[in-house]
# Entry
Amino acid sequence: MRRDQVDVIVEEWRQQLPDTVSPAMDLGKRIHRLAGRLQEAVRNETGALGLTPAEFDVLSALRRAGEPYAMKPSELAAGLLLTSGGISNVLRRLQQDGLIEREADAADARVAWVRLSPDGVRMAERVVRAVTGAQARLFAAAPEAMVIEAADRLREILIAIGDQAKED
# Structure
């Protein structure tokens, strides 16, 4: 069987602290390495378009929401696991770049909405296509059936550890 970098790392731990080696370590290290490769692909694509990964996340969340491409900042922050300060900084930069607009809720002055501008819709679509293309290129060497099976198995693991979709 061919070996990857995780096999080397796990074997080193098996030599040093054998009681720490487990299937959980093996899986965790592989997920960590895979996440790093995916993050690198995202950073390359977003950076080429003048965006940070966090800005990409906000643009894609707004575009994914569908017309009118609007959400509350608190919804964005919760969905993207950003702090209120972190989301504020990202939104400020996107607004300065003309990619989002902010508006008060007509029914409740305490509520503000973030909406993609027309330029923001175009940029969101462009960057989502760039990132998904990079992901496809990253996984192109693996058979599609293997990628599908891995995604299905990881879904099962995420659900088993409590990361379930909220029911509508």
Q: What stands out?
A: The chain is about 65% helix and 5% strand.
